Automatic annotation (TrEMBL), chain A:
Protein name per its UniProtKB record: Carbohydrate ABC transporter permease
Domain of life: Bacteria
This protein's UniProt keywords: Cell membrane, Membrane, Transmembrane, Transmembrane helix, Transport
Keyword Isomerase: no
Protein location: Cell membrane
Membrane spanning stretches: 12-35, 113-137, 149-170, 182-204, 225-250, 282-303
UniProtKB/TrEMBL annotation, chain B:
Keyword flag Cytoplasm: no
Molecular function in Gene Ontology: ATP binding
Taxon lineage: Bacteria, Pseudomonadati, Pseudomonadota, Alphaproteobacteria, Hyphomicrobiales
Entry keyword annotation includes Membrane: yes
Pfam families: ABC_tran, TOBE_2
ABC transporter domain mapped to chain residues: 4-234
InterPro entries: AAA+_ATPase, ABC_transporter-like_ATP-bd, ABC_transporter-like_CS, ABC_transpr_MalK-like, ABC_transpr_MalK/UgpC-like, Mo/tungstate-bd_C_term_dom, NA-bd_OB-fold, P-loop_NTPase
Keyword entries, A-Z: ATP-binding, Cell membrane, Membrane, Nucleotide-binding, Translocase, Transport
Family affiliation: Belongs to the ABC transporter superfamily.
Name the record gives this protein: ABC transporter ATP-binding protein
Length: 318, 369
């Protein structure tokens, strides 16, 4: 049956829709800005008023992936003619691609990107698996001082992490873990662990104990019951928690900046360092940022149904 | 052959003792119903037998073997939960096959067993569905199927039909009975519904506040309740209980209810029986089920005149509240027997259906006339 709306309700609905559209535009504007800047010719990136219509090009991405030096004098006509199409764009910009022998020197971006991926994925896996087991323990067993433990775990998130940046740096330096993958993995796992324990405890509390008890009576061990019954039932919660952890680790800037500089450096501190010689090359930064946003965007998009359920979980009593 | 025994079982939740000195022997193929109000310890007892709850003292024996230290998985017992707890991420087929997968049987054997159980329970067409797509009754059948599929030593059921609506509950009750008659496995069934208990049980175990009150066939607990608790818990409508004085009068005994001018007529040998049962002079309670209160429209010898207060027409019969002294006595009559409230009627108590209890201890004096 179609719901009958009073004129008043109809106006309220329209207003709500307008508000949603406006909010969406506000949230999407920076992303639109980064995406378009990544494809702009450098000269158009900083015009006032902003350029909206332009011929997109991929020069910023070519720059992002290559090592370059500034040309001190114009290139020879012959060399220019012999260069591949993509190199001409660099030469047009007054720069030259660095080569060793015949091979083009790649920039550090792919490495930094890979570092980000390794560190974020590993720390997410660790935090989610350890946190889920911990949450299961708190949810199902009588733990002496349970409330105090849980509060203690939560309290690790009550301080802005940057407050402990200096002691953290000194500790890392003392044990020789600065600029290591393991260092950042441990750090991000520790950050996310309390968050995972709390979120997953909520999810597991919602799974009736009787499912496991049924499995226990049916001839399975507690561990088997956990893996065969609790994990599949908690999949939604795990997915939602995993996405949050991944985003936190992926986007972390301050500690990555302080604790890494080369080998284990992640993309966030690297991207803004892409300053072209002379002045900030916004198009290359935008290109780096744009690529950096993609994994999270894809990941979130794939898991969007789980995420929605995850965020509203427990909000409605059935 | 399965034989379950509980010996001096004690269980505490913190300070609260939920099972007190529980002693019970369950015979092979017996259908035992544990009956009691919520919080009486019946579910805890059942879970302790299954291995889902530890006990603090005493022994639980299955086939003569002490099992309280064994894990649930090693006791070879099946459990049906009130919530059915079918695994939502598995189909009906997978749910039923789940216990067999733990035993490492071959696919073909599992398949055969699942299909056989599905046939018995008439759920074969549902095997590919998910639990969320099932009706309450079918969910219950699947839960029972999952319990029966590996032919456990005993089947434990915790209010298995408590979550269903009244009509379905009646249907499933019959089905559980049919299944037990067909399969004949030792079954322990927990409920707070005395009708269910009466309908299903070979023997009923009645518990209150962690203490076993009476064990007996449905007839025994109905006709000869061991104490006031059982008397009032079993039977609907509830048994009338009234403090009473017994007086001697010529060739008969008279049972006088508080505030009443006259007493009900009883045979004279009541006095001797009461004494034999250990009755003290006062502190005596009379118990009589509504069908033991005989009502007449006309004056009759040995009947007392009273006024009908409230009439509850229930279709097949009426329940009538009669004022006797300061006490209300509920009687069961044919439908429409007393046309309207306020009518004067004549009542008598059927001595053969009367029970006498010691008020202080609640114990039945075992008087049978």
């Amino acid at each position: 049956m179609a719901a009958v709306q009073t004129p008043r309700q109809r106006i309220a609905n329209r207003l709500a829709i307008v508000a949603v559209i406006v909010t969406t535009i506000i949230f999407l504007a920076p992303i639109y800005w980064i995406a378009t800047t990544a494809f702009k010719p450098r000269a158009l990136a900083t015009t006032v008023p902003p350029t909206v219509v332009f011929q997109p090009e991929i020069t910023p991405f070519i720059k992002l992936f290559t090592k370059r030096v500034q040309l001190t004098q114009p290139v020879d006509e012959e060399v220019y003619e012999a260069a591949p199409w993509w190199e001409k764009r660099i030469l047009d910009g007054g720069e030259r691609v660095l080569r060793v022998g015949d091979s083009v020197q790649l920039s550090a971006y792919p490495d930094r990107f890979l570092n980000s991926l390794i560190i974020a994925v590993t720390s997410t896996l660790l935090a989610v698996s350890m946190g889920t087991l911990t949450a299961y323990g708190f949810s199902r067993f009588r733990v002496p001082g349970e409330q105090d433990w849980l509060f203690f775990i939560l309290s690790t998130r009550m301080l802005p992490p940057v407050v402990v940046a200096i002691p953290m740096f000194l500790m890392y330096r003392a044990v020789g873990m600065t600029d290591t993958h393991l260092g950042l993995i441990i750090l991000y796992t520790a950050f996310n662990l309390s968050f995972v324990v709390w979120l997953m405890k909520g999810f597991i509390d919602e799974i009736p104990r009787e499912y496991e008890e049924a499995a226990l009576v049916d001839g399975y061990t507690r561990m088997q019951a956990f893996f065969k019954i609790v994990l599949p039932e908690a999949a939604t919660g795990i997915a939602a928690t995993g996405v949050f952890c991944f985003i936190i680790a992926w986007n972390e800037y301050a500690f990555a900046l302080m604790l890494t500089n080369r080998d284990a450096q992640t993309a966030p501190p690297f991207i803004p360092a892409q300053v072209g010689s002379g002045l900030t090359d916004w198009t290359t930064i935008a290109a780096g940022t744009f690529l950096f946003l993609l994994p999270v965007a894809i990941f979130t998009f794939l898991l969007r149904n789980h995420l929605l359920r995850g965020m509203s979980f427990g909000a409605i009593r059935k | 052959m399965t034989h379950i025994e509980l010996r001096d079982v004690q269980k505490f939740f913190g300070e609260v003792q939920v099972i007190k000195d529980m002693n019970l022997v369950i015979e092979d193929n017996e259908f035992i119903v544990m009956l009691g109000p919520s919080g009486c310890g019946k579910t805890t007892t059942l879970r302790a037998v299954a291995g889902l709850e530890t006990i603090d003292e005493g022994d639980i024996l299955i086939d003569g073997k002490v099992v309280q230290h064994l894990k649930a998985a090693d006791r070879d017992i099946a459990f049906v939960f009130q919530s059915f707890s079918l695994y939502p991420h598995m189909t009906v087929y997978e749910n039923i096959a789940f216990p067999l997968r733990a035993t490492g049987q071959s696919r073909a054997e599992i398949d055969r067993a699942v299909r056989q159980v599905a046939d018995v329970l008439r759920i074969a067409p549902l095997l590919k569905r998910r639990p969320s797509a099932l009706s309450g009754g079918d969910m219950q059948r699947v839960a029972i199927g999952r319990a029966l599929v590996r032919s456990p030593k005993a089947l434990l059921m915790d209010e298995p039909i408590g979550a269903l609506d009244a009509k379905l509950r009646e249907e499933m009750r019959t089905e559980i009975k049919r299944l037990h008659m067909q399969q004949g496995s030792t079954t322990v069934y927990v409920t707070h519904d005395q009708v269910e208990a009466m309908a299903l049980a070979d023997r009923i175990v009645i518990m209150n506040e962690g203490v076993l009150q009476q064990v007996g066939s449905p007839d025994e607990v109905y006709l000869h309740p061991a104490n006031l608790f059982v008397a009032q818990f079993v039977g609907s409508p509830v048994m009338n209980i009234a403090e009473a004085q017994v007086a001697e009068a010529d060739s008969e005994a008279r049972v006088v209810m508080p505030g009443a001018a006259e007493g009900f007529v009883f045979p004279r040998n009541l006095l001797g029986r009461l004494e034999a049962g250990g009755a003290k002079g006062d502190g005596l309670a009379l118990g009589i089920r509504p069908e033991g209160v005989l009502v007449e429209r006309e004056r009759r010898e040995g009947y007392l005149p009273v006024e009908a207060h409230i009439i509850e027409p229930l279709g097949s019969h009426d329940i009538i509240d009669l004022q006797v002294g300061t006490q209300m006595l509920r009687a069961r009559t044919k439908a429409g027997f007393v046309p309207r409230p306020g009518e004067k009627v004549w009542v008598r108590i059927d001595p053969a259906q009367a029970h006498f209890f010691d008020v202080e201890s609640g114990r039945s004096l075992g008087v049978r006339l």
